[in-house]
């Protein structure tokens, strides 16, 4: 079918046209008042016919279409079955072989991140700016965050890191980063290179707040980190209070892979060389960071065969106010899979679930049983999700139970495979000698940390759960018992 025939036969009824063209080309519709652009091997545009006139051009030349598919927008079933991301590797659930899967398998790394990297450090040292420079995603999204220009909640962003296939391509320019939904391959732009950039890593960033009162939020994010980037501003003395506090936290949590990145070094140069403000905002050495992530952060060994278990770090209601009843969607749980594989259509259980108090004051938990209706890694649709990376799990759960991060700290997995629920724990601990994260004036030493006392209320972090706990007993050996305000379900928590 020719393009002109397709347009003429659609009767002014919106169409969805899939064109197979060169992915570096820019499509120009003449004129174009309703269109969507994407620079990918398979491009999708939705538009209304009367806004389009032939010919269509690519880089000023008439468009040569190798393959064309036209779907009437009024046929919702047909449109639903069209894969809007056909430039990514296809996942086929019917042919899934867990024994053959790895974190670098093409159909996995193409759509889903497989490594979680946290950004930690003092407030205003550039953690969110670095994430945006690598991934293109601005993690500061909430109103109160934008008003104060600081990160308050955990921010999330995915990015692909590419390496040029030509071994002669000089470093660090042979490394490149792009958003999660970009193609897995594209030509190298260096003159006479002849190679192509190939996706070698797909990572999820966990952007942690750096303010002192948000330390519990940082610890929640650390529960799912495989590595961390410690951001240090070059224009301030080091260490700043939260730099030291975050570093102590990841050391206690035994996070082995840590890269230290110095930011704002151009501010120091500005004092001597009077560099203009515009040059201070350039993204210097992002390719170097991509190279070090690939070389210094190993791909973790994952367990694909066990029963799936996901730790929830975000949950929300995606329905807009005033939505029609037939358009309502179930709640969404966001998090990272610790082990096993989740797939669309799978029956799942969430623990502890709905937590209530009985008349006598005791806590009662009712696990939630539901079904997975969709899996997403940012905008990438998944048929199945593997350990590592941050994903969103669309369910049939009442959205009221997911609204406002109400499922944070819960565990999601296959029905009947999750651990028991606990309200009282006994832990081994050790205390820091002095307080960290506190700014002391005049070179004074921070106060010493006192011993735990019976009846003392502590802030307890278990996985992604942050809750209050009252000390009910302290033994001679350092193993206090604590009564938690919120129950949790996690057997032998990693952190």
From TrEMBL:
Cellular component terms per the entry's GO annotation: cytosol; eukaryotic translation initiation factor 2 complex
Reactions the enzyme catalyzes: GTP + H2O = GDP + phosphate + H(+)
Molecular function per GO: GTP binding; GTPase activity; translation initiation factor activity; tRNA binding
Occurrences of domain Tr-type G (ranges): 112-368
A GO BP entry: formation of translation preinitiation complex
Keyword entries, A-Z: GTP-binding, Hydrolase, Initiation factor, Nucleotide-binding, Protein biosynthesis
Enzyme Commission number(s) from the entry: 3.6.5.3
InterPro entries: EFTu-like_2 (IPR004161), eIF2G (IPR050543), eIF2g_C (IPR015256), eIF2g_dom_2 (IPR044127), eIF2g_GTP-bd (IPR044128), P-loop_NTPase (IPR027417), T_Tr_GTP-bd_dom (IPR000795), Transl_B-barrel_sf (IPR009000)
Protein family membership: Belongs to the TRAFAC class translation factor GTPase superfamily. Classic translation factor GTPase family. EF-Tu/EF-1A subfamily.
Designated name of the protein: protein-synthesizing GTPase
UniProt source species: Ditylenchus dipsaci
Lineage of the species this protein comes from: Eukaryota, Metazoa, Ecdysozoa, Nematoda, Chromadorea
């Amino acid at each position: 079918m020719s393009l002109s025939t397709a347009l003429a036969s659609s009767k002014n009824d919106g169409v969805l046209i899939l064109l197979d063209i060169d992915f570096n080309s820019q499509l120009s519709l003449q004129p174009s008042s309703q269109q969507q652009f994407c620079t990918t091997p398979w491009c999708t545009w939705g538009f209304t016919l009367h806004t389009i006139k032939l010919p269509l051009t690519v880089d000023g030349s008439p468009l040569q279409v190798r393959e064309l598919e036209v779907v009437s927008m009024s046929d919702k079933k047909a449109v639903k079955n069209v894969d809007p991301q056909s430039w990514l590797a296809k996942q086929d659930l019917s042919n899934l072989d867990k024994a053959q899967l790895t974190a670098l398998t093409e159909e996995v790394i193409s759509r889903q991140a497989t490594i979680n990297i946290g950004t930690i450090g003092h407030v205003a040292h550039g953690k969110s700016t670095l994430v945006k420079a690598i991934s293109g995603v601005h993690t500061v999204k909430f109103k109160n965050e934008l008003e104060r220009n600081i990160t308050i909640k955990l921010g999330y962003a995915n990015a692909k890191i590419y390496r040029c296939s030509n071994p002669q391509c000089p470093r660090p320019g042979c490394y490149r980063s792009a958003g999660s939904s970009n193609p897995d391959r594209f030509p190298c732009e260096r003159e006479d290179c002849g190679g192509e950039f190939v996706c070698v890593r797909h990572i999820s960033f966990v952007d942690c707040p750096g303010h002192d009162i948000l330390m519990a939020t940082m610890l929640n994010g650390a529960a799912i980190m495989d590595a961390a980037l410690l951001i240090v501003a070059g224009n301030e003395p080091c260490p700043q209070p939260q730099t030291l506090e975050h570093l102590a936290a990841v050391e206690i949590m035994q996070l082995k892979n840590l890269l230290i990145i110095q930011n704002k070094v151009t501010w120091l140069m500005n004092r001597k060389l009077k560099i203009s403000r515009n040059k201070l905002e350039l993204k210097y050495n992002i390719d170097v960071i991509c190279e070090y992530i690939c070389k210094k952060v190993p791909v973790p060994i994952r367990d694909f065969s066990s029963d799936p278990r996901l730790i929830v770090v975000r949950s929300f209601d995606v329905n807009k106010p005033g939505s029609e009843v037939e358009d309502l969607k179930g709640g969404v749980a966001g998090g990272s899979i610790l082990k096993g594989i989740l797939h669309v259509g799978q029956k799942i259980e969430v623990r502890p679930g709905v937590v209530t108090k009985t008349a006598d004051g005791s806590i009662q938990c009712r696990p939630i049983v539901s079904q997975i209706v969709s899996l997403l890694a940012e905008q990438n649709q998944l048929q199945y999700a593997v350990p590592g990376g941050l994903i969103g799990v669309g369910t049939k759960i009442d959205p009221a139970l997911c609204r406002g991060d109400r499922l944070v700290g819960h565990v999601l997995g296959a029905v009947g495979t999750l651990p028991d629920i606990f309200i009282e724990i006994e832990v081994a601990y050790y205390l820091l000698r002095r307080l960290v994260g506190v700014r002391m004036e005049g070179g004074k030493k921070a106060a010493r940390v006192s011993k735990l006392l019976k009846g003392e209320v502590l802030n307890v972090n278990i996985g992604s759960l942050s809750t209050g706990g009252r000390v009910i007993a302290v033994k001679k050996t350092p193993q206090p018992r604590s009564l938690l305000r919120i129950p949790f379900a996690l057997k032998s928590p990693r952190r």
